[in-house]
Amino acid sequence: MNDARSQGLYPKETIANLLNVSERRIEQLARKKIIPKAGRGVFDLGPTVQAYVRYLQGLCSGTIRSEEPSELDKRLLEAKVLERESKARQAKYRADAMEYEIRERKLSTEIPQKLREKLTERVYDEDDIEEIVEIVREILGDSS
Fewer CB atoms inside 10 Å of the end CB: C or N, the chain? Predict the structure, then answer.
């Protein structure tokens, strides 16, 4: 390792300590080509520090966007998720309401019709049948 240090090459542990980040963060930065790797697990001190400083300057100036979402980004994402969930609930409520309305209409027309058919089989006076059907319509709240 002394031979590597004489060439300005240092292990990721040393680089992590110098930059005040974790070894894992050093691996991430190298994988994203933010800092250059000189070889397996070693970094050239000068170019690595320069690249990291350029990266931090870019973050500060806004020319480079951090891979970590900002608090605002997180809140915006949460708001979008809540909006989608709300829209999905609204759509379900509308569908349920339509289904209920269809059933109610069907019942308000089918029941009097079926009642009329059944009564016709058993009752021979048409006025009685109409009176019974009207009573059922009043109970169902249908004035048709």
Answer: C
